[in-house]
Design a protein that fits this description.
4 copies of one chain form a homotetramer.
Chain A (H helix, E strand, L loop, with lengths): L1 E4 L5 H13 L3 E6 L4 E6 L2 H5 L9 E5 L19 E3 L2 E3 L5 E5 L6 H14 L3 E3 L17 H14 L3 E4 L6 H7 L2 E4 L7 H8 L5 E4 L6 H13 L5 E5 L17 H8 L4 E3 L1 H5 L2 H14 L3 E5 L17 H18 L4
Chain lengths: ~325, ~325, ~325, ~325
């Protein structure tokens, strides 16, 4: 931590900061500049970061030098985390295409979609049984019945599936069916939920909060990681900005930023970020080109009847065309798909 | 809902929209414009809003005419909701000053603060026993022991208290002690938690998600309201923007916007929005001038030792001075404080 | 400047940074931490800030300790700048109400408005002759004819006036009529224009770019200041955020932040920030309570016929009521209005 | 335009809106809904959009159905605009790689860079002679001398070049040297400058304002287009968001959005959006995959000595590697590069 003093700070203010550092077992390196003094605090990162430095007289601000997370950082583990689920792989030179309906609505809708995406080349099935809806009057999902259908589809089409979990009380239930759990964007900072999925022995997809910084997102991953679950997949799904032409602004730069800072795999959700069907295909192509480890795409056999997010679902035929393009790009980039 | 067709849309596309509206029991009003057709959809608001109109061929966009919430709107209830808790009142011409420590740390810290804010004129005590911390390594609160201390302080200083609840499994516990429950900014869209507090017979403070629009915030209030709990107090606490000089950007305009759209009381949190002690007093003054029904302010007897958010806590003496200014302003604005 | 090295940086990387600092005549203070080295760069602020530190091998980031501006900072001049224009004053315990039509449309419209706001207590007249319009097809203002009408209104009602200047080629013209020049929000970073108004001997209102940080805004003021014009008034007029209930989000916290960092007066524009008539009065009240040195408000005798921004203009009668409230608040706050 | 009335609006309010529409030569289509009336306004788009509808009693809001721009829309011109400059082409199945130094610093720096990027496959040279700097104390560019050096480099390496113009008074000068003019992000809404470049017979690169919506950006293009200059290239260079891990957030979705709405070519600037060297290569790959018509990349022979934006400049060798990857991707996507 760098503690920047105010230009009018007196020696006694500096002394107090130094004493506080000593009291918590840390060292102070003092630099006296042209117009102000700067104190480098050396010692236990977490202890230092939790002091309210700015509440001390004469302190202007405190600039952290270290990130608040540790286990998910590339400094802690230089090599990429690679995750295997059934026959599928995420990371390690393998681009993982995940696809399926946003919400499971019926056996027929799920099976038609699962068959189509499997044949087109998807390796992991998506489909939610619990939906977090902005309005209390909207369709909330099929609950356990949806999970049972997903388990049958897994059997039928030999694909592991990912499903969202919304409530700490439902983690056990969802984990008893799903191969991968997903934490949605609205729950990224729901620490009670993060702790629960951290205790489960299944991979977790952690969607970025649409208003979370990359640091906050990695911190949320740390919550899961420190509980013992090390198989975390980060999902970039767009952030909230002033632009309204898309539902959210896909922060594609987050992929190389994360690759630099963390060893965790990161995938792109072009469906929920854009909210518009005709944008999904170009954004999915960008995902592989920028270095993501996979994508997760909404597909629906009849989007105009979908109960959730029909505006953004690809038709099975559109997904098939997309997968053709993805295979060309994977070859050009020397990746397996 | 207004359904705007694409300029190239054909009669058959228009017909399909009209048929869909008929199928869900709604009427279509068609306006043929210079370059495109626009269809007014008349009928049940919720049914119409849940159709994926943009997924239909030839549809450019669908513009909602009605808001998604109903019970919390001023159209549903024209007169202001006024909330009484013990001797305190929120709304109805009474400005409610709420103050206390961000987190309960010890009996001494809590009681010193409670006594000071009570003497200065605060009518409701704040103090949290459960803290949602960005880092898993930070202080997480005293839990039930904190609630017990708060209940003792209530007795001693004759002030009802408000405390945060983080987890649906803890709603019953917190509600068994606290006079008012608080949903924090990170949980505004935690629908499992909103439903639980909606079943409790105690007022709820609903903090605005720091990335939530006013419409989303009112929608979250609707979640609580529809479960039967009608005593919801909205808390504006700043939104996330590009500006970093303050922790968040206090959206002071939200107060008159809400007053126009909803009958619920709305208060300001100048401490968490600004994150800086020297900004709290001017923002608290702005709160009463703009028409808020109260404020909630962090006070700490020794901010530089605070375990949570010490940077923003007022000293008891600063709070006392603030209350003097507030009384002058209340008189000028013809309000009771 | 604090230069933070990467955790893997070697001695040679550190040496190169130290050598570079020596080459530009600066000193290096080296702190070796647990996991990385941090270098404090001491010397000429501007020279240090212009080096591309992050382009050097082994450097993670460079954290500025000093602000990039100097003359407009409170460290350079501790006492408030107070500006006098004719009989009006801005700052120094005087709250300056400025009002008038957004755009000058006709003699009749201008004079009716000027008379009304003068009688209600405004001390400075606003009215623009050049309008920057988003669409090339919109009304662009009356140009010099508008300035002539404003000059006549000044004579008639004994009020100095402020008018916007859009183009460096028109600075001389506008300055030959107006008492105060205004730089609009879209031109805050138009450095060619800032330099020109910096050479004029008339006060300048500098609106915050709706996407500018406070630091960038103060930097723009520095551009004007360093050319020799020290009479700069900062105008907070809202920033662009994700919230669409208001045209922009009034950043009311910017007022106490600026008061802390700069000696320049700062006023609020509640009309352009909110874009809605019914929000103007509460936000104007908040302006004086938070510590602003004035406001600038749109008034129009017939808003529904206004050629620019009619949605936000107050009626003369509404402005009169507002001024009654402002006088009460000024008394409570011990200010002159 | 759709005019949405308030739920409490009376017949007389509706009548007044209808009368106003009649007065401006437009028609009204009235839909009476469950709780409110909606009026479709049919007639001249520009005339309707300029009325202050919300200032009329009983009107809640006015929702535009048509975009404010016309000539740059795909409805006006369905086929893509293709631009040829010397031997280079932008659009029409050709991906245009543009590269060079951010600022021209010296003959040697420019020529070394130009030679390297030409050999690696760039078709257009970038290099600025006028720089808009946030601080008045920073390097402002070599001015006309820089333009002369660029003209010599064009001759030597047979590459057209693009250079920024900052001031309406300098358009003629820059246009007398450069093959393509560029409007920078801070000037996107500098309408005086847009008008001037609209009169020039050279292509114009229009950078997106970092706080501009896509609609505002297309509107700015309309400003240039309507003056007679139809060769406008849109440059996506990132928008300002809350994320600080990158200088700005590259809005990659803007590319397919623009392709849908406009016939103008659109390119990506991965250097200025990210501000970090190691992010440039992955983002450049994403640019071609998402469907952009080119990129513009900063290259510098010695970034750590660059006078402007050295943090983001690629080394010549890095650019060469990037171009190898781009050729593979172009082949996979069936594009010419």
């Amino acid at each position: 931590m760098i503690i920047v003093m105010k230009s009018w700070a007196e020696q006694e203010h500096i002394d107090k900061v130094v004493q506080r550092l000593a009291a918590i077992g840390c060292e102070a390196h003092i630099s006296v500049g042209q117009s102000r003094t700067v104190i480098g605090a050396i010692g236990d990162r977490e202890v230092i970061q939790q002091q309210p430095w700015r509440a001390m007289a004469g302190v202007e601000r405190a600039v952290p030098v270290e990130k608040p997370y540790k286990f998910v950082s590339r400094e802690f583990q230089p090599e990429d985390t690679v995750i295997k689920v059934g026959s599928a792989q995420i990371g390690g030179g393998v681009f993982a295409p995940m696809a399926g309906p946003c919400a499971v609505e019926s056996r027929d809708q799920l099976f038609r979609t699962a068959q189509a995406v499997r044949e087109a080349g998807a390796t992991i099935l998506r489909g939610d049984a619990f939906k977090p809806r902005t309005s209390p009057f909207s369709f909330q999902g099929l609950a356990e019945e949806g999970l049972q259908l997903l388990a049958e589809a897994r059997q039928e089409f030999d694909m592991p599936f990912v499903a969202e979990v919304l409530d700490p009380r439902e983690v056990e239930l969802v984990a008893s069916y799903a191969d991968i759990l997903r934490i949605g964007t609205r729950n990224m900072a729901n620490f009670a939920l993060l702790s629960e999925v951290g205790k489960v022995h299944k991979p977790v997809q952690l969607k970025r909060g649409f208003t979370a910084t990359i640091d906050e997102w990695l911190n949320a991953a740390e919550y899961i990681y420190k509980e013992g679950n090390h198989e975390v997949v980060l999902v970039e799904r767009g952030i909230r900005t002033f632009e309204t032409a898309t539902r959210n602004t896909l922060d594609i730069s987050a992929v190389p930023v994360i690759k630099h800072m963390s060893h965790l795999p990161v995938i792109i959700d072009p469906s929920h970020s854009s909210g518009r069907r005709h944008l999904v295909v170009p954004l999915a192509r960008a995902a592989i080109a920028v270095g993501a480890d996979g994508f997760i795409v909404d597909v629906h056999p009849a989007p105009e009847t979908a109960q959730v997010d029909g505006d953004q679902a690809l038709l099975p035929s559109e997904f098939e065309e997309l997968m053709d393009q993805m295979r060309n790009l994977a070859a050009a980039l020397d990746l397996t798909i």
